[in-house]
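ok trying again, last paste got cut off:
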Amino acid sequence: MEPGYFVDLILPVPLRQLFTYRVPDFLTEECQEGKRAVVQFGKKKIYAALIKKVHQNKPTDFEAKELLNIIDNEPVVNQKQFRFWEWMATYYMCSEGEIYKAALPAGLRLESNTGIVYNQEYFDDEALSVNWNFTPKETLILDALQSSKSLTLNDINDILSIKNSLPHIKKLYDRGAIKIHETLEKGFQSKTEKFLKLNENFANNEALNKVFDKLKRAQKQSDVLSSFLELSNFGEERGLAEISQKELIQKSGATTQVINELIKKDILNLVVKDISRLEFKSPNALQISNLNEYQLSAFEQIKTQFIEKDAVLLHGVTSSGKTEVFIHLINNYLQSGKQVLYLLPEIALTSQIVERLRNVFGTKVGVYHSKYNDAERVETWNNINSDNPNSNNQYQLILGVRSSIFLPFNNLGLIIVDEEHENTYKQFNPAPRYQTRDSAIVLAKIHGAKILLGTATPSIESYYNAKTGKYGLVLLKERHLNIALPEIEIADIKEARRKKQMKSHFTPTLLENLQLALDKKEQVILFQNRRGFAPYIECHECGWIPRCEHCDVSLTYHRHTNQLVCHYCGFSYTNLQVCAKCKSTEIRTRGFGTEKVEEELKIFFPQAEIKRLDLDTSKGKKSHSRIITDFENKRIDILVGTQMISKGLDFENVSLVGILDANQMLNFPDFRAYERSYQLMAQVGGRAGRKNKQGKVVIQTISPDNPLIQFVQQNDYENMFKSQLFERKQFKYPPFNRLIYITLKHKNKELLDKAAHHYATWLKKAMKENVIGPEYPIVSKVHDLFLKTILVKIEKSTLAAAYKKYILEASEHLLKQNAGKSIQIVYDVDPY
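nice, full thing came through this time. structure:
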């Protein structure tokens, strides 16, 4: 490159602009779009920014700062990703910097408030002492760190009296002499393993005999050397083989101290190698299962529709074998050398599906989600970003959740969105607040790939798009092995209460069926879409209810920790025994969550093994898969759970599913309440009788005549869809209108009211009756900030981009006013 080059950078900050920096001459050859560059931002901050564009257009209105360094040898982000980010930033009204923060694993980001500490373990390892050749500046850094608990990059810049200490820090970090915490606590560092190799000077028998003569008085060292030679098959074709130090210790029973003596004597050479954290297990010799006639018909229809349509909706009833159809489709694309992205709504689903896919595709399958540590996510990112598609260790099929759409695919051929209706595909906080399914459709278009949406209960929008010809539509109405859909029985809570037949939260119908299933050694799933022991506690004397100090919500009681917890901000304190208002001791729980259901079931069925699957019990990396595996292996009789149990799990011995409170879902103040209720009940019910016989579903409700309950009982998705479509059109909701949900936040309620009124008035000038609000939401205070919301409805025929531009201009106008300077504004496009 010639001198005089500039770069436009994406910085991980919530500002809707690129930042132009000058490329110093010594970096011109390394400068390339998609690489990360170290830059100073403001007076103190140092960031790892992404180079989006290299050009020679010198800024005319400011003096561009210089890049400090280039981090990467090869680009970590490709041009198709940049195109995807541009679309996402425009559509979801956020900055590319916010997408950068969401897209890249934390190990590929670096900020100046990173804490750096001295790694004492490195200097305690005598075997590494031969590598302690540090430069004067590196020695200065180590001396400073040794006398301090932690230093930031800025601190080290000051110590060295230079602008950029990062190259020195990186060298020390790569060697293991320092550790990085806080921002880079999860920062990527290669996983290493120590290997040992015989010094080539002793690679013949004569030289080796002399070595053993010298070791006559060091019997332990002599024994270790003998074990090493045996492991390395010395004298055979392997030559000077490298043996894992761990393997040598296991074989010889030696200590690292004995091995270090052999290294010091230069008999053995230490080799430290990078190894992968990723699993590359050989595939089992399993063939792809044959499809039945209905699955085969669906498979052929999908292939035919892909000729004309880029997106196809597979609407198959629960247990119809949609996953087998997916596997055959995946196989076609992998055989043609294409990459496939398989999206799931929940991490809890991945353990079952990944085992199934690895049994067929083996080492081609990679997994990417937040339960993996950051180093593993960086390795997966780098694996996919590799330019060697023929490598046996390169993933071709990625199984993941929301964040997987940001991976650096370079040959994507197919995206599968399993359970496409699930609301967990929507990212709520922080920005970008994207809908994974909709974003995946755009991602597929950018790559020239196809996308298949699969579900038993399509979202209203997807089914409407399929019915109107935007998507292809394939139906799979027969269950695998022709097993009948479960029998659905409605249990009337109101009638049971009138007859005084209720036992706690259980109708006699549900308890009878529970006992029957347990007597037959069959398993049961009980669904209650609320975690915790009770939604709140209440004083029986004065009605006082403890509330969060920082949010406008009551506190949920968790019995296993005896804590009252806010599910919005995490505020908690030990459960009260005395009313804070009237000092009465008559404190009672109200309502019920999964924890309370679990406890009461143990009273009714003391011999049964009962467990919960909810957010509280599945926080660990493997805790959710452990519960699922135990249930699969019949070590659990009754599984109580939230919506996590409704999504695509397959248990062959489940004969009964109980829905404890259907009205809790139906009465939620949301235009999607009926749609979501139908989906949840149908999906949970679909877990019953999936393998060898018809199952049963018991739905407890106080309104058995509700049309939605009737639709579920009759498995009538079509009429549910028609009834919802009529209401949506009448009240201007999706799929006929797009929604933008704008939230304004501030600590001062009065100031917020004025600002929200001013902002809404400004919006209504252009959008008139399409602007609703401002209103206080149901929860009007979170994290000590008061909230006010405005809903904007945009007709599909209207240019949404023009409306969004006007909304952003109105926001700038507000923030320039004295009353609005400190207001936080959050945009949520396609909310709920």
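cool. The chain is about 35% helix and 20% strand. The radius of gyration is 31 Å.
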